Amino acid sequence: MKEINVEKTASRGIAIAPVYIYEEADLTPADYPVEKERIGEELEKFEQVKRDVIAELEQLSEANPIFAAHVAIAGDYTMVEAITSRIQSGEKNVEQAIAEAVEEVAELFRQMDDEYMRERSADVLDIGKRFLTKCKNIAVQDLSAINEPVIVVARDLFPSDTVKMNPEYVKGIITKEGGVTSHVSIMAKNYGIPALTGVAGILDAVKPESMICMDARSGRILVDPEEEILAEYKKRQQEEEAEQERIKKYRSMEPVTADGKRISLCINVGSTDEIKHALDKNIDGVGLFRTEFLYMENSHFPTEEEQFAVYKEAAVLCPKEVTIRTLDIGGDKTLPYYEFEKEENPFLGWRAIRISLDMPEMFREQLRAILRASAYGHIRIMFPMLISLEELRKAKEMVEKCKDELRKEQIPFDEEIEVGMMMETPASVILADEFAKEADFFSIGTNDLTQYILAVDRGNKKIASRYDSFHPAVMKAIETIIQAGHKYDRKVGMCGELAGDVNAVSRLLEMGLDEFSMSAGNVDYVRSAIIG
Questions:
Q1: Active-site position among 135, 213, 318, 495
Q2: Is 495 a catalytic residue?
Q3: CB neighbour list of residue 297: distance below 8 Å, 6 or more residues apart
């Protein structure tokens, strides 16, 4: 028996099944020279490949919105230019050009500080994989052909792989690469499939006939366990399944504390598709709609109309509450169509509300789209990364200007729309009392708040043990924010990772937190912890 332990869980649960090893096709670029008179042929070959791939992606996007972003990536100017320029130079054939350009663009994402953005390199590589399989005219292993219970083990899985999986047969997923915010992790959470990602050595530890017990709650993997251990894990699996069924019974119950306080349970999303997957969990709404993905997964700044369509759909899906955070980008989160200056410390640089205030026309288009969508449900506007009252006032002034424009154009919107802010900087904690007088609500972003208060880079593995949202200083900051908000009758929510941690629920309730917003997979557990 071999045992492997993993620090982070992508999707919790226990799975016991034989291994299904996903073997990647050999996409090594052909090594042939390109004579000058053949450069045009290579360029035309790429154009045809690009057309075919985009056509396939457009068809896939009708069933899965993930691929709508892939369509944009496949036709993105930066990607296409990186490939065609290599061919035009005469130094690379089409396959070499694709492989090099895709790796170059993917590396840009890998170097970003934000974990979610690092994982987006997988989307770029997925496009490259599609390009090369078209060039080589080869078929890849079809995961839709799996027709018996298995645990899929792979180096990595791309969206085009995971979309083919049948949850009835795929009982677990283990990948050598990837992280908890990768598409395979998101897919696994949506379908309730236990998953562990970033598992070093997993491919060396298993064979096609291996049996695996994986406990994605504790991050433990057992390869070919003895019968006694296998029986023990089967018992644990039954207990886990019984616990999940028990927790599901809470879905129909109101999340009310022992002392009678009604708590709001919301989800954090980056798309309307994520909302659709979570509606069966009886949520109170969306506590954080990350609008940056509308910008990052695009080939241009999204127009007012493009944004309005998305925000309106979200409002219709969740009429009780959709809190839309204005663009939180910059530094570590870049755009393929806009050049940011290189910064020494992007987390302390030109980002979030700073960019919005410095780019008023872009900010205006987003605010108009949000306001227009507010006519279709209870939408709230939330500003990120504020450190001064001046910033809050300038942002609110822009909202008022947009309201005036819409009134003159006779376009309906919610005249009483709430305008609040993220509490995620030490400055916002110190000024919480002053902010509470002018913001309609607070939402605590514990991810950034923790790293700023503790001076610990949450992406630095060497000091990962020091990143602790339960640190007394962080807890004191959270309590300060809640007390300041309640002093002025402001609703105080939390949309950071801590909101989805059942171990924090009782402490946060004692402090008086009004709203918990988290990934959809944690809602049932937090609800049961609140009810007790």
A1: 495
A2: yes
A3: 68, 69, 72, 73
